[in-house]
Design a protein that fits this description.
Radius of gyration: 18 Å
Strand order of the largest sheet: 1-2-3-4-5-6-7-13
Number of domains: 2
Distance between the termini: 44 Å
CATH architecture of the largest domain: Alpha-Beta Barrel
Number of strands: 13
Number of helices: 8
Shape: globular
Order of helices and strands: EHEHEHEHEHEHEEHEEEEEH
């Protein structure tokens, strides 16, 4: 049976929805991207008291000068009883061997986690889980599940990060055009769609113009189904989880993203 997994805004939200979920994804402050809210080691330790599986995201590209910080964080994380570490940079795979820690790894390289061959490769390298790309169709997701050795994470609800830049695109724009309002959140309007943008210390992330809402699809064989609360109020997020638990449609439009549409892009 699938485990309901939530990406949360804060610990208070976790307490509100705790009876509705099996696991949490908590991005580590300073070492994670594509999340609106991040958590300190102390907050992660506090979340363990909720008696749910905790997966900590350490999913940014790691530069040489950040390796000491990463090693220190891994040393502390692996002393906690977390269920896994979500990684992008393969330095974490190498550090697991060197540091000999037992905490499971979740391979999550965004748009690269698209086939069971590579999922199985990283499984052999020590990643017992894989977080699949949101550009996959439902058919491809189920094919990977059938042919892979790893436990899988799949997004089924929430705004999706489309791309990230290390540059501060919003800040640069505001400064270039001398705009007084300098909010970390902005909006890009293009071809009739509004895309939410976040500019943080680690760069800029652009999110989808829609909320992925595949909660009515049957993914019972997938290990972890991910609900993302970014940009969504706690009250509304709790309603979505409650509706899912009660096998009811939620109030949001049924937008399935690429679930039934092959991802084919052509340069114009």
């Amino acid at each position: 049976m699938s485990k309901i997994t939530a990406i949360i805004n804060d610990l208070e939200e976790a307490k509100e929805i705790n009876d509705l979920v099996d696991a949490y994804i908590m991005p580590l402050t300073g070492l994670s991207i594509n999340y609106r809210h991040t958590f300190s080691l102390e907050e992660i330790e506090e979340a363990l008291k909720l008696d749910r599986e905790i997966f900590v995201s350490v999913n940014k590209n790691i530069h040489n000068d950040e390796l000491p910080k990463l090693k220190e964080a891994l040393t502390k994380l692996t002393k906690l009883k977390i269920s896994g570490i979500i990684f992008y940079d393969i330095s974490i795979v190498n550090l697991k061997k060197k540091m000999n820690f037992k905490t499971p790894l979740v391979w999550a390289q965004e748009h690269l986690t698209t086939n069971y061959g590579t999922v199985n490769y990283w499984n052999e390298k020590g990643a017992q889980y894989a977080y699949l790309s949101s550009e996959l169709t439902k058919r491809e997701i189920l094919e990977i599940k059938e042919n892979s050795k790893s436990k899988l994470f799949v997004n089924i609800f929430g705004y999706l990060p489309m791309f990230t830049s290390r540059r501060h695109l919003v800040k640069n724009y505001v400064e270039t055009f001398d705009i007084k309002e300098n909010d970390r959140q902005a909006k890009l309007s293009k071809e009739g769609n509004d895309y939410l943008i976040e500019d943080t210390k680690l760069g800029t992330t652009v999110y989808s113009s829609y909320i992925l809402n595949a909660t009515e699809e049957d993914f019972k064989n997938v290990d972890y189904l991910v609900f993302n609360s970014n940009f969504i109020e706690t009250k509304d997020f709790k309603e979505v989880l409650t509706d899912y638990k009660n096998k009811k449609p939620n109030k949001y439009p049924k937008n399935l993203g690429f679930m039934f549409e092959d991802t084919i892009y052509k340069v114009k």
